[in-house]
Amino acid sequence: MSRLGKKPILIPAGVTIEISGSRFRVKGPKGELEREFDSILNLEVKDGAVCLVPRREGGEVKSIWGTSAALIKNMMAGVTGGFSKKLELVGIGFKAQLEGRDLSLALGFSHPVKFEAPAGIDFQVDKNIITVSGIDKEKVGLAAARLRELKKPEPYKGKGIRYVGEVVRRKAGKKAVSAA
Asked: How many C-beta neighbours within 10 Å does residue 117 have?
């Protein structure tokens, strides 16, 4: 049995839930999220909590059960509080500017890089920190990863886009290698 899946998931105040078959919809103060779950699970609302009940037993059911429980918790957390990731621009001349909802980035290339905001994702720029925020945890993480992919931190000088708090392992340059 899935330890995470068999626990009922409490519904926070201000959140409404609609279940139709295997489709799950959550509405809250920040917005609305909808997701289709596997038909192996029955989704039920009992006593102010969402319960996941498997229709059959097996190894495949355990993994889907726990994952579905985590996704439902993240959906409820997203519509009540939202999610955000912070990225840091490191490098001389590296800048980010908002142009409407989209980002314009100067990353040392011969041209500025345009990054379009996906639906449901907002950007904020404060000096060299870019904040990616939204109600869907999956979309926020994906947008932040794609933004970081534009100019990954390189190991010699550490220049690039990195998550705030990320540690970049630095390599020694040619001088340290030839001196040994």
From this structure: 16
